[in-house]
Write a structure and sequence with these properties.
heterodimer, A: Rossmann fold, Rossmann fold, 26% strand, B: mainly alpha, ABC transporter involved in vitamin B12 uptake, BtuC, two-stranded antiparallel ribbon
């Protein structure tokens, strides 16, 4: 009798379903997590926040066994783990929705959900039983999922629900979501929050990784903060506010909402007239799109990722063939010209993916900074590079744009996301020109870099260039743009002046005016 | 006219017969391809298997033992490839080419040093894979010409195509191997041991590759000739690409090669220069790949174009 009482007492002691202490993890020469700590209570929504590179995703990937941890202890439901693999994590009831969905595009939704846990009948997979089990969860949480479609054919929001169903069918009680709202519209995000609250009501424990403070204040019960790989503390939501959380994340106050400066708007530097171009998906094809960007203004293009924004930028910058229509830069027809000719006409471009189009990650900072102008004096003469001129130029820019570490000959692969992006921004902005096309300029960079890149864009506009800004961050579009274009399904569904725009309305236009509808 | 002499009922069997070694090779490549591993070493595995089959059959007088040892030999080579690719992270194409060159050299060496032969090795003591004779078919000339006296391995290849189709698309293992091949990270997150799946795929591929060789030296013929695979492994890889690693489409691609080869052999009898005839399978390989790539690309462009609305 006494024994049983003691055991029950012990159980009460450990109010945490997961606890991680003294966690360390090093990748090569980078210490991603220096001193990680995290506790999760049963039935709570616990936000884990921090800047990019603060180690929050790494912590959760360690918990899920994606990589082994170097030091520390992990306890799940009272059981200590020396090492974790995804398999043991799943068995311990942990499920993770990754930032990049872990779904096989060529397989169907149902196949993806049962992957690794397939019911069998004789030699074959028992799809009938699988369908029944999965449908039960879909009905229980009122999610709208089509089981027989291939992943490639469904929307991002639906794919995310597939991920959630997938981990529920695997018996997860602890659900980790890695920046789940980054790819969603405000309406879709609200829908996700409803699902999360339902899961919580069912006794599931949820870890919500994010850096969007307004969402964190809406959804969490408790919030843990990490900075530069170190655990900074945990607070109850009711005891805190956005400013305090921001200070814990960054260590100082930040001013992301720069005051918009009015500059004198001139003539159109970019005119897009009835543009038609091919798309990777049916909804990203551009069919007859027209707009212009004038000197001295920032035009923001808002829209859910994959609704033709990338294709539009590629068509303007010469990376994708224009099938019909015209692109005019400063009065000159640049339709289907080579990238080099387009750049010579005065277009500069911060591409959406710095790793594939923005930078050569193997080359040094200096070489990347002159990539566009390397065939011109003073960087080369008669086909020979002038190393001294390159170095001098690079050092100037490194100082001016505060790129760290400040070594011109260092390969850009050693740079953090924020500093790598600053190299791209420095190169393009220094070129001058007439128009700057900035595609997702602050994607995957830390708050410090976001701050400086945004103010650089403002400066560019003040200098009298036109800026075409594409961003998945509505808040970025709203805080920088003078005018806003909303894209949905490869079409412009709204044109607004920034002053009259609000998030709600933009979200609606991003889904083509259908509230709660699915793209 | 000679036309009817070239295109007659026996062309069906002749096409199939010529295609069979390539089908085996293509299946060998298709298995690893499903796990996103390009098995360029198919040629070498096959050649090594061909030699082992003949050597063992000659020494033991048992074709079955020959086939078995050939398959085990294929497995050994495949495992060398697997370990260097999966454990030591070397490039699979480089290893594959290495295996191909190694196989040419080692079979030549063993032929000389062990069996004291060079060039071509034919001997009555080499026991071939038996042919299946069905009495009932004798009565109908067409059936007799077309389906009688196939070797066991020729019948088996049809079975193997069906088995692999079933395994890839109907079983747990197949779903997992396809997931591993198309997005390894997703498979890993689902708790699947990606490396283990890849080892399994390469191992099975090795067994099939060895069988491909055994069929070539003991079924298709009853001898070993230096470098006797004669690019059949590469044709298999080409057919595998054509068929998108789908066993049935892959086999159809191989039948096309077999067809051109058989036509060529017949044309030779009518004064077409042998050089041209020998060229035909290779021209066919290039043509079939070019056509399939071009149509794929055209369809892709059409699918992506904004000017055409999807139906």
């Amino acid at each position: 009798m006494q024994y049983i009482l003691k055991k029950a007492g012990e159980k009460l002691d450990s109010e945490y379903i997961v606890s991680m202490e003294g966690i360390k993890k090093t990748f090569g020469s980078v210490q991603a997590v220096k001193n990680g700590e995290f506790n999760l209570k049963k039935g709570e929504i616990h936000s884990l926040i921090g800047e990019n590179g603060a180690g929050k995703s790494t912590m959760m990937k360690l918990l899920y066994g994606m990589y082994p941890f170097d030091a520390g202890t992990v306890t799940i439901e009272g059981k200590k783990y020396e090492s974790i693999t995804p398999k043991t994590a799943i068995e311990a009831g942990i499920g993770m929705v990754h930032q990049e969905f872990m779904l096989v595009k060529e397989l169907t939704v149902l196949e993806n959900i049962i992957l690794g846990f397939e019911p069998t009948k004789g030699l074959t997979i028992d799809f009938a039983t699988a369908r029944k089990t999965v449908q039960k969860y879909i009905d229980q949480y009122n999610m709208d999922i089509q089981l027989d479609k291939k992943i490639a054919q469904i929307s991002v929001g639906e794919a995310q629900r597939v991920e959630i169903i997938k981990i529920l069918t695997r018996g997860a009680n602890i659900i980790i979501l890695d920046e789940p709202t980054a790819v969603l519209t405000p309406q879709e995000a609200r829908r996700l929050f409803e699902i999360l609250n339902n899961l919580k009501a069912d006794g599931k424990s949820i870890v919500f990784i994010s850096h969007k403070l307004n969402e964190i204040m809406e959804i969490s019960d408790r919030v843990s903060v990490m900075r530069q790989g170190t655990y900074m503390g945990t607070v109850n939501k009711v005891d805190t506010n956005e400013n305090e959380l921001a200070r814990m994340m960054i260590g100082r106050d930040v001013f992301l909402n720069i005051e918009k400066k009015k500059s004198s708007v001139g003539d159109a530097v970019l005119q897009v007239e009835d543009l038609w171009t091919s798309g990777e998906k049916e909804i990203s094809k551009i069919r007859g799109l027209s707009f212009d960007v004038r000197a001295g203004e920032i035009v923001g293009v808002a829209g859910i990722d994959g609704n033709g924004q990338s294709e539009l930028i590629e068509a303007i910058t010469g990376l994708r063939k224009v099938e019909k229509g015209k692109v005019i830069l400063d009065g000159k027809d640049i339709t289907n010209l080579s990238v080099k000719k387009i750049r010579e006409a005065g277009l500069t471009h911060i591409p959406e993916d710095r790793n594939t189009r923005g930078l050569n990650r193997q080359f040094s900072i200096g070489d990347n900074l002159i990539e566009v102008t390397l065939d011109k004096e003073p960087f080369s003469k008669n086909g020979f590079l002038k190393k001294d001129a390159v170095k001098k130029f690079a050092e100037e820019l490194i100082e001016k744009f505060d790129i760290r570490p400040a070594k011109a000959e260092l390969p850009t692969s050693y740079l953090s996301g924020g500093n790598a992006q600053k190299v791209v921004v420095a190169r393009e902005v220094t070129l001058g020109g007439k128009l700057l096309v900035a595609s997702q300029p602050t994607r995957g960079v830390d708050i410090g870099a976001i701050e400086s890149i945004r103010s650089i864009l403002q400066d560019v506009k003040e200098k009298g260039l036109g800026v075409l800004l594409v961003s998945a961050e509505l808040e970025e579009i709203m805080s920088l743009s003078d005018r806003i274009i909303v894209m949905h399904n490869g079409k412009i569904t709204g044109r607004l002046n920034a002053e009259e725009a609000n998030e709600e309305e933009l979200g609606m236009l991003m889904m083509s005016g259908k509230e709660g509808g699915e793209a | 006219m000679t036309f009817s002499k070239i295109f007659n009922a026996s062309l069906i069997y002749s096409t199939f017969r010529t295609a069979t070694p390539i089908i085996y090779a293509a299946l060998c490549a298709a298995i690893t391809q499903q796990a996103d591993i390009l098995n360029i070493g198919t040629e070498g595995i096959m050649l090594f298997g061909a030699f082992m089959a003949v050597a063992v059959s000659y020494l033991t007088g048992s074709w079955a033992l020959g086939v078995l040892v050939a398959m085990l030999g294929g497995l050994c080579i495949a495992m060398v490839m697997a370990v260097s690719h999966l454990r030591f992270r070397s490039d699979i194409c480089a290893i594959g080419m290495g295996v191909n060159m190694f196989a040419v050299a080692i079979t030549k060496f063993l032929l000389n040093a062990w069996l004291k032969q060079s060039g071509t090795f034919a001997d009555p003591k080499i026991i071939a894979i038996p042919k299946v004779h069905i009495k009932a078919l004798e009565k109908v000339k067409f059936l007799n010409d077309t389906f009688n006296d196939w070797t066991i391995t020729e019948w088996f290849v049809i079975l193997l195509v069906i088995i692999l189709w079933f395994v890839f698309y109907k079983t747990v293992w197949g779903l997992r191997i396809r997931a591993v091949g198309r997005m390894a990270q997703a498979a890993q997150t689902a708790g699947i041991n990606v490396n283990s799946m890849k080892y399994q795929a390469i191992a099975i591929s090795g067994l099939v590759g060895g069988l491909a060789g055994a069929h070539l030296s003991l079924g298709y013929s009853a001898m070993f000739v230096e470098n006797m695979t004669n690019a059949r492994g590469f044709m298999g890889v080409a057919a595998m690409y054509f068929g998108g690693a789908h066993p049935i489409f892959t086999a159809l691609g191989c039948l096309f090669f077999g067809f051109t080869d058989s036509i060529g052999a017949r044309l030779q009898a009518y004064g077409v220069p042998s050089q041209l005839v020998l060229l035909m399978p290779y021209v066919a390989t290039i043509a079939i790949l070019a056509i399939s790539m071009a149509t794929k690309k055209a369809m892709e462009t059409k699918r992506k174009s904004s000017l055409i609305t999807a139906a």
